[in-house]
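hey m, so remember when u said the tokens were messed up on ur end? i reran from scratch. heres the input so u can diff it against urs
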Amino acid sequence: MIDYRNGLSDGREFAPEQPPPDVPGYREKYWACGFDGRAGIGFSIWLETTAADYAVWQEVVHVVLPDGRVFLSSTETHRASSTGPGGQVASGVCEQPFRRWSYRLRGALEATTVADLVRTDGERPRRTPTDVTLDLDLLSTGPAWDLAASASSKEVAFTTQYRQLFRAAGDLQIGSEPRVSLDATGFRAHSSGPYHGGTFGGHSMISVQFPSGRAAGFLRHVRPDGSATVSQAFVLDDGRLIPAELAEAPKRLERLSPGGDRFPVRLNAGAKSYLIDVEIVANVTSLRPNYFEATARTADDLAIVATHRDGLANAISYGRFSLDGETGFGIIERSTRMSALPPSSVAETRRTHVPD
């Protein structure tokens, strides 16, 4: 029997109705991200309380298709329920703690492509609003992975965080196109606490499941000099969540691309080593020159980030993974300060990107 809670209380699944009065900049963040590798369809639903009003949720969502089209949106609306994350565009409901969640998306999303998201030549085609409907039923496939013990409250973007693997069944409707059924694997994350971005230099992570039931993941946050503030990993073998050492993996995003990146990840769990080959199918890239100032939650945070005047480049990616000859599908995310990108790309990006 799998212990899906892995020692966590059911209450951890729910956001408090009001933020703690003694924690400046407190926020709640939920993320559900999955990939149907056979259909080539990926989805990301990021839900976060806003700084100005805890009852208003920011909904940052996208869907990527196998032909490279991306449909994306970032909105703020009033919360859908007192206990669940999200607003009127996207929301989640905990049907059974640490076992089953449902997610829904209803909105007019902007149509673009993975190639256009990384263009730095100043030519950005007009994005056409397209109605998108997504319904998902998420069933957990492994124990919750608690990262709270790894967090330095002065340097990372959460005080507590756990993640959990899932299998998702659902339906996707893009405009007037035929409805598509999804059978995806992915993960969901729930974080709480204030954000501290002054020393954030980037991050990287993977989450993958294989047909045999094996799975693996890691999360690494680094400072601008590459030293780690968070570095944790796990493997799932025979239904057991095993802590692992992150021996080899990217530290952060190194370049902008629509996809095709490839790199190894090596995790050591006890006497056993897991070498995973990662091949990215599609990168959904966002460029946010004002990221650090926009996410500062207190006067002290703003004073720190205002001195470096930097932005963030982030890529949520969907990929094909290989482990001992077995192929699986999963998620990759990497980010970096924009000042660490190749100089020519950064210069063009700063001139052409519309500020947040």
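this time it looks ok to me. Helices lie at 291-295, 299-305, 343-352. if urs says something different then somethings off w ur setup not the seq
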